[in-house]
Specification:
CATH architecture of the largest domain: Orthogonal Bundle
Number of domains: 2
Number of strands: 6
Helix content: 40-55%
Mean pLDDT: 97
Order of helices and strands: HHHEEHHHHHHHHHEHHHHHEHEEHH
Shape: globular
Largest sheet: 4 strands, mixed
Distance between the termini: 47 Å
CATH superfamily of the largest domain: 2-methylcitrate dehydratase PrpD
CATH class of the largest domain: Mainly Alpha
């Protein structure tokens, strides 16, 4: 049986079978985390510019942008997808090196709102999109990540699966929706290397492509059903020796949505183990920047290839600079949105500390990627002593998860400045009761 048939078998069953309470709970956590990332992203570029670019598709339609403005399904998916991937606070499925929330929930929300689906159907759509796309991501990793950005590529499958579920497509239509989106999967990592706005657009494009493919399939548009594993398909074109057994392993039994990483820092997730390790040493020792001779950060090569940037230019590059984010964390105790203001970016204390940081690709930690994201932190002091700490996981990983209370605090921190405290609390309350709501349109 081809993979597409097995994926559709699962998805159709998931439309009606009783969901375990813990799966529903984790799906709501994913949606809350998505909103936490999307709201601050909705008031900055590229989302603000996309609203101008697609003005003819706004103030009409059944879907909604972050703060409730009406939009057509595809435009809502595009803009919300870009917004939720802009401030680098969106979730991660570690074993696939993938941010599923941006493309998957953006597509699910747009399709659910546009079709007046219930809150429960919306959650089912989110779950289906996460379960299918995270497994496709695992199958093609780590070789896929050499050139391709999983949030744009793998995310397209998550978006199509979610939108097809929200729109209540049948077995045949579901297969063609996911098949069609496979040929639209895109997103090059070259976009990471500049101040360009292309990277958040990967999440937006994937969400839009997913909704497009589902809407088209609903009207009879067909796709190549072997697009995933075919001899000239997604796997062959974008990875080396993909393991397709991972696509169906545990599907519908072991829910990946229960094993998400929710970010505790507002920057690239590859920086997290080093940041966490440095903060541990700061918390356990009386450590001042002026006492430091050298900081050595040993971590995994796949991440270091992206974040080893000793001279970042601008906010975007700084979020992908291990040197900048670690220096900021050591001096200010965190890496939140205020870490990337012009004042912080030009802080001479940060720039001075950055010069003391040495980054090393550790061969053992590199072998553990993508299943483990770890770092060894060694800080040599001017008095000749050394402080060392091994950070085996990141705060927010399944092994060190954010509690519901910590997730609520993250949401309020990021949502309050955009919505105001009262509106943010009202929205959060509605999100925690999603499965009971008649629809996925919120009043706040």
């Amino acid at each position: 049986m081809m993979l597409m048939q097995q994926l559709a078998d699962y998805a159709i069953k998931e439309q009606t079978q009783k969901l375990a309470p813990e799966v529903v709970h984790h799906a709501k956590r994913a949606v809350i985390d998505w909103y936490a990332a999307m709201l601050p992203g909705s008031v900055v570029a590229p989302a603000t510019l996309l609203e101008l670019a697609f003005a003819e598709d706004l103030d009409r339609g059944g879907a909604r942008l972050a703060q409730g403005r009406k939009a057509t399904m595809r435009t809502a998916a595009l803009i919300n997808g870009a917004a939720s991937h802009s401030v680098e606070f969106d979730d991660i499925y570690r074993d696939a090196g993938y941010h599923p929330g941006s493309p998957t929930i953006s597509a699910a929300m747009a399709a659910a709102q546009g079709s007046n689906a219930s809150g429960e159907r919306f959650l089912r759509a989110v779950i289906v999109g996460y379960e299918i796309s995270t497994r496709i991501g695992e199958a093609v990793m780590p070789s896929h990540y050499r050139f391709w950005h999983t949030t744009g590529t793998v995310g397209a499958f998550g978006a199509a699966a979610a939108a097809a579920t929200a729109l209540h497509l049948n077995h045949e239509q579901f297969m063609h929706a996911v098949a069609t989106v496979g040929t639209m999967a895109a997103g090059l990592k070259q976009a990471f290397l500049s101040q360009a706005m292309s990277k958040p657009l990967h999440g937006g494009h994937a969400a839009d492509a997913g909704v497009l493919a589902a809407l088209a399939a609903a009207q009879g548009v067909t796709g190549a059903l072997d697009i995933i594993e075919g001899k000239e398909g997604f796997g062959q074109a974008m990875s080396i020796n993909p393991d397709w057994t991972k696509v169906v392993r545990g599907l519908g039994v072991d829910y990946h949505i229960q094993h998400m990483t929710f970010k505790a820092h507002g920057c690239c997730g590859h920086t997290f183990p080093s940041i966490d390790g440095v903060l541990h040493l700061v918390d356990t020792h009386t450590l001042k920047a002026e006492d430091i001779q050298k900081i050595t950060l040993a971590t995994y090569k796949a991440g270091l290839d992206i974040i080893d940037n000793a001279q970042p230019q601008g906010e975007y590059q700084a979020k992908f600079s291990l040197q900048y984010t670690v220096a900021h964390a050591l001096l200010y105790g965190s890496v939140r949105l205020n870490a990337f203001t012009p004042e912080r970016m030009s802080d001479p204390a940060i720039r001075s500390l950055m010069k003391k940081i040495v980054c090393v690709a550790d061969p053992v930690l590199s072998e553990g990627y993508p299943n483990q994201r770890a770092a060894q932190v060694d800080i040599d002091l001017k008095d000749g002593s050394r402080l060392s700490y091994f950070q085996p996981y990141r705060k927010g990983d399944p092994e060190l998860p954010l509690t519901d209370e910590e997730l609520n605090a993250k949401f309020k921190e990021l949502a309050d400045p955009v919505l105001g405290q009262v509106r943010a609390e009202r929205l959060l309350e509605q999100l925690w009761s999603l499965e009971k709501r008649p629809n996925a349109v919120f009043s706040f």
